[in-house]
Amino acid sequence: MTDCVIWVVDDDADDIYLIEQGFRECSFNVRTFSPPDINEIIPALERTYSKDLPQVILLDINMPKISGKELLGWIRADLRFKHIPVVMFTTSTSRTDRIECMQLGANCFLTKPNSYQSMVKVCSSLATVFCTPEFSQS
Question: Which CATH number fits domain 2-130: 1.10.10.10, 1.20.1560.10, 3.40.50.2300, 3.40.50.970?
Answer without folding.
Answer: 3.40.50.2300
